[in-house]
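During the reporting period the student researcher (J.K.) took over the structure-prediction task from the postdoctoral fellow and processed the backlog of single-chain submissions. One of the processed entries is reproduced below for the supervisory committee.
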Amino acid sequence: MAKTVLVESKPAITKVGTSGTPLEYYVQTQYQVDDNGKLIQGSAKSFIAYNNSTVPGVKNFVQAAETTDGGANWTFKNGVDGKPIFGADAQKSLKQGALRTDTQNAITSSAKNAPQPLSAEDQKQLATSAKNNAGTEAQQAQAAVREDIKTAETKSRFKFPEKLTYPSNLQIEHQDVIKFNMLKYEPRSLNESANQGLGSFGERSNFTSRTIGNVFLPIPGGITDTNAVTWGSDSLPSGAKALADLANSIITGGAESGASTAERQIGQAQESSGEIKKGLAAYFTEQAIGQTNILSRTQGAIQNPNMELLFSAPSLRPFSFTFKLSARSVADREQIRQIIRFFKQGMAAQRSESQLFLKAPHTFKIQYLHRTKDHPYINLIKECALQSFTVNYTPEGNYMTFADGLMTSYEISMQFQELEPIFNDDYSKLDQDKDTVIGY
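J.K. obtained the following structure tokens:
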């Protein structure tokens, strides 16, 4: 018959938050043992009792948090006012700070202070429940890193103006324009279960759900795009191909298959003409001694390199834009200032609260629009990173301002690059290969 065991730690004080507010508490740990005094797995449960009294000398301990996995995760309890008993600093400290460490040590100590002695194995198991269920040290460190990186979002700007236009009277519904959508950066997720466990990267979510601001400008002159892929020459002499066949047989079929392939290759070599034997012998001699050109020195020939131009990799397209912005009205000057700020702040890296980590800047989706829809006769552009943004404050070659200090003219130059290559099926997704748009 199971027996319940309850152990309480001594009251302790841990300082939480940047101000070091003292928090007084004790930990109750409850678990069950069977008739033989052996720990019943999964029966451990712990509570934090917190002294919320503000009267000196008066203690009022109330349950503020509960865990059933040794401190890996805590459920926070509410007070009579419906608000969490633990404030934000205490909750944060219990998740990844000093309070987490102290309470886990208190839970672990119950293995030694139990009224009914546990075996060394069960003591270790209870300690494991308190510590290892919360994750290994490496896992805890990774969790702390993820939490710190998330703090970059609380420090950074994620709301920018919408429909910034230059000139301020730009008729975006009736004329062709270029639209720059700023997006919250989203990394591609790794699907480890795909492709028979080899894994693959998923798609980013639709850019419209991540748009945090946009700018409309007239389409500038000189817009171009260049699609490129990398090809390179490569060679595979017959001797190297023979070794490749042997290695492939061993990898795919094991040692027995490799031995069979080697035997077949040796037999074919022995049946070859004298010149072929000499050529193969020279090649393997070169491989054995690390010296090249033996065949050329002795026979005045080389093995056919079987040279071929082979596909190597796709490429990421760059895009450059230059705009000249001259204020013609009060509305223009405000738009120009905000547009420059829009790009400068949007391309800046985000730093975490600890300043140990930097998070990727926002990205951009660029669209050529014809009457508010994608222009069918100009190329499409995938999501891009803004790699450089240059402002020329004196594009006319002279320093000139209005009475309030506004520059008479600005010239901005931007260099973007797509995050992903262009693939054949990207075009098919656009119009099912009906060729109604130019595409990418």
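The committee noted the following: The chain has nine helices and 20 strands.
J.K. will present the remaining backlog at the next meeting.
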